[in-house]
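About this split. The held-out portion is used to measure sequence recovery: a designer receives only the structure tokens and must propose an amino acid at every position. Recovery is the fraction of positions where the proposal matches the reference. Here is one held-out target exactly as it appears in the evaluation file.
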């Protein structure tokens, strides 16, 4: 038979377990992919971090714009993100991801940033390749909110039967939110890393963390 102290300990454990279980939430989210996103299908997400909606618009080589839209449950912490980029004269891309918590909070239309044709005075080295991690650059006049020069490297696997490795490389203009992305998935299966680059030389800029680390190492060397 449990002593009074033992019963108190057991009661405390039961209370903690009940509290832990009560923090596990489930959401009813709208879930869809591509053309299905007009049907408002529902799914229950057990122990979810909420709902998300994702919209991507891209245009290659002057072809009509293509649209990719996704909605569903967030299996991990959802981080909102919105950016656009123009890589050479071959590729324009806009990406928007919204996060929310609550029943079907992602039911509305997902939003991606709208591009502008108004020059902003910035010029970047620009090019686009689907065959190699390099390409010959040419000057590109940036527009709208795309005030940063970037380098984008994308790799992945074609999801069609017998799909080959995908390689994408580009340089050009982008919104500041497109700088220094690591492992972001776009266009279904393409994993991209992005880097801010110098508008004059086209070389990668140091991130604030790396810059401060190098500064610290230099000061340490001086002091020693």
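Reference sequence for scoring:
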């Amino acid at each position: 038979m449990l002593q009074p102290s033992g019963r108190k300990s057991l009661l405390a454990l039961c209370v903690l377990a009940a509290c832990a279980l009560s923090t596990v939430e489930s959401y009813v989210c709208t879930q869809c992919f591509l053309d299905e996103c007009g049907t408002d299908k529902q799914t229950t997400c057990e122990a979810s971090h909420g709902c998300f909606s994702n919209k991507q618009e891209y245009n290659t080589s002057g072809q009509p714009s293509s649209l990719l839209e996704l909605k569903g449950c967030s299996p991990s912490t959802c981080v909102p993100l919105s950016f656009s980029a123009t890589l050479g004269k071959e590729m324009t891309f806009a990406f928007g991801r919204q996060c929310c918590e609550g029943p079907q909070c992602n039911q509305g239309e997902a939003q991606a940033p709208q591009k502008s044709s108004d020059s902003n005075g910035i010029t970047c080295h620009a090019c686009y390749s689907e065959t190699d991690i390099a390409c010959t650059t040419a000057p590109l006049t940036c527009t709208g909110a795309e005030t940063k020069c970037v380098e984008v490297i994308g790799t992945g696997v074609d999801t069609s039967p017998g799909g080959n490795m995908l390689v994408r490389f580009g340089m050009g203009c982008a919104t500041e939110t497109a700088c220094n992305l690591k492992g972001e998935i776009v266009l279904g299966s393409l994993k991209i890393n992005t880097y801010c680059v110098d508008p004059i030389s086209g070389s990668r800029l140091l991130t604030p963390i790396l810059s401060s680390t190098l500064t610290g190492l230099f000061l340490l060397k001086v002091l020693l």
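Annotator remark: The chain has a mean pLDDT of 80.
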